[in-house]
């Protein structure tokens, strides 16, 4: 056989192989990842260590809620449904896999959501759409700046010329830039170091950076472990922050029953967190290695996260307000936020009650009851506190931070896992052990001890109230 004929056969063989590969790819894309005509494969991306998305990832996967609903669907449709879970460290690699057509549904933070939406906006039917929310904080307190425990910094101004670890293009990065601007600083006044959250956390522990600006749960995780202290709360920027769920529009169109089953599962898991927050925290802790006390700070009553799948208008407005920053730093392009939002499946899940649920921002789980130490009703979120004693199935409520400190001191040496108190100026939930305490002798007996999230807040109160004095945690307990 001649060399020319061999060459022609070789070219034809390679072309046939290429056609076969392309055909397989097209078939996979058109079937939404189906293994065969009777099986629908649902590829779900999530971030296991992001507490704000556990109802669409870690906890949802563990409880098998989605799989059970798909099995029920299969009994009706005669089809098989297979779920493939993919864990990611952050929103960026998850978005990359969605762009590659390898993830159908994913959960991520508000900034990555915008990046995802803008990068896929030109994909036609394969563009990403926002189909639900996992959890939110209307103040923005899920993003924070912390500094090493031994740092002398008390305000953002103290970071001039210092290295600040963050993930560029993340909500933590955006929060930091907003905070710097509010403090009269430019981004160039600090040295930004682009690092994944876990890498930056190690840098804080090694005292290699001056500060660390990140999203839930990393700052509070370092605080709880005694490796950092809070310098700036993103809530001071007054901009809502949240995590949400995106899906490939083509997948949702082809399989609306799957999208509805997924979002119903997210709603059911959110309801479980609200009704059994302590058990949920213990489960998430076991699965992620994040201490249950940290998880409970976020998902407990009066917690930092409100778990609610509905897409509320303040959150949509926040997306529109955040987009210019991402375009400025080159992380995102143009995006019509209104068209990015697709509530079709959510409305099918909630029925006629969707608009009312969407309009409500009242937390589903709040601290309530009677304080057993001070004998007072518990209800005011600006003062309601909580003590978690080791070996107990339930936490103990306290009407005020002062009453919580009394509960600890009068517990006959019970081991305390955590004490949760609200920041005096804002009501934001925090660890009592990490607070800066102020003793105000002029206050009522049940309110003489006031916790502050930052040293700067405490200093402002001390300056405005003669006769008050600052205490550390041990002294505050003793003073109770």
Please explain how this structure is put together.
- Keywords: Signal.
- Residues 1-37 form the signal peptide.
- InterPro entries: SsuA/THI5 (IPR015168).
- Pfam families: NMT1.
- By secondary structure, the protein is of the alpha+beta class.
- The chain folds into three domains: 32-136 and 241-359, Periplasmic binding protein-like II (D-Maltodextrin-Binding Protein, domain 2); 143-237, D-Maltodextrin-Binding Protein, domain 2; 369-479, no CATH class.
- 42% of the residues lie in helices and 21% in strands.
- It has 19 helices and 20 strands.
- It has helices at residues 3-30, 58-63, 65-77, 91-99, 110-120, 171-182, 197-205, 218-224, 249-254, 256-275, 277-288, 292-299, 313-328, 337-340, 344-350, 354-359, 401-409, 455-464, 473-479; strands spanning 39-46, 80-87, 105-109, 128-137, 143-148, 163-166, 191-194, 211-215, 228-233, 241-248, 306-307, 369-370, 377-378, 385-389, 396-398, 416-422, 429-431, 436-439, 449-452, 469-471.
- The strands form five sheets. The protein has a six-stranded mixed sheet, with helices on both faces. A five-stranded mixed sheet has the order 7-6-8-5-9, sandwiched between helices. The chain has a four-stranded antiparallel sheet with strand order 15-14-16-17.
- Helix 11 (277-288) crosses helix 12 (292-299).
- The N and C termini lie far apart (98 Å).
- 49% of the residues are buried.
- The model is unreliable at 1-31 (pLDDT under 50).
């Amino acid at each position: 056989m001649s060399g020319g004929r061999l060459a022609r056969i070789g070219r034809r063989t390679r072309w046939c192989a290429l056609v076969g590969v392309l055909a397989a790819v097209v078939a996979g894309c058109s079937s939404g990842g189906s293994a065969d005509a009777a099986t629908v494969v649902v590829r779900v991306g999530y971030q296991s260590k992001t507490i704000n998305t556990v109802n669409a990832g870690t906890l949802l996967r563990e409880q098998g809620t989605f799989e059970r609903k798909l099995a029920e669907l299969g009994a009706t449709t005669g089809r098989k449904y297979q779920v493939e879970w993919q864990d990611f460290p952050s929103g960026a690699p998850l978005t990359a896999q969605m762009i590659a057509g390898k993830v159908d549904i994913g959960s991520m933070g508000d900034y990555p959501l915008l990046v995802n939406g803008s990068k896929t906006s030109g994909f036609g039917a394969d563009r990403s759409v926002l189909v639900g929310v996992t959890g939110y904080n209307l103040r923005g307190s899920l993003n924070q700046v912390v500094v090493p425990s031994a740092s002398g910094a008390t305000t953002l101004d103290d970071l001039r010329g210092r290295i600040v670890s963050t993930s560029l293009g993340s909500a933590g990065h955006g929060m930091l830039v907003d905070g710097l601007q509010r403090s009269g600083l430019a981004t160039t006044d600090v040295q930004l170091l682009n690092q994944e959250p876990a890498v930056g956390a190690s840098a804080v522990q090694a005292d290699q950076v001056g500060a660390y600006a990140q999203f839930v749960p990393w700052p509070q995780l370092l605080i709880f472990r005694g490796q950092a202290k809070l310098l700036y709360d993103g809530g001071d920027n007054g901009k809502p922050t949240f995590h949400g769920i995106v899906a490939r529009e083509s997948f949702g169109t082809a399989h609306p029953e799957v999208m509805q089953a997924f979002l119903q599962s997210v709603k059911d898991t959110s309801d479980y967190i609200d009704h059994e927050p302590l058990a949920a925290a213990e489960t998430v802790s076991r699965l992620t290695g994040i201490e249950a006390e940290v998880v409970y700070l976020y998902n407990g009553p009066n917690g930092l996260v409100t778990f609610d799948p509905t897409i509320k208008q303040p959150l949509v407005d926040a997306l529109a307000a955040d987009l210019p920053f991402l375009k400025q730093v080159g992380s995102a392009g143009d995006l019509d936020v209104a068209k990015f939002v697709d509530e079709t499946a959510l409305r099918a899940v909630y029925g006629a009650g969707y608009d009312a649920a969407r309009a409500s921002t009242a937390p589903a789980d709040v601290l309530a009851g009677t304080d057993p130490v001070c004998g007072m009703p518990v209800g005011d979120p600006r003062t309601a506190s909580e003590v978690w004693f080791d070996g107990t199935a339930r936490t103990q409520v306290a009407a005020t931070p002062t009453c919580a400190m009394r509960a600890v001191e009068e517990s006959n040496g019970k081991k305390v896992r955590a004490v949760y108190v609200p920041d005096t100026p804002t009501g934001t939930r925090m660890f009592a052990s990490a607070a800066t305490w102020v003793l105000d002798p002029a206050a009522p007996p049940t309110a003489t001890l006031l916790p502050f999230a930052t040293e700067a807040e405490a200093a402002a109160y001390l300056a405005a109230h003669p006769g008050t004095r600052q205490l550390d945690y041990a002294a505050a307990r003793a003073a109770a």
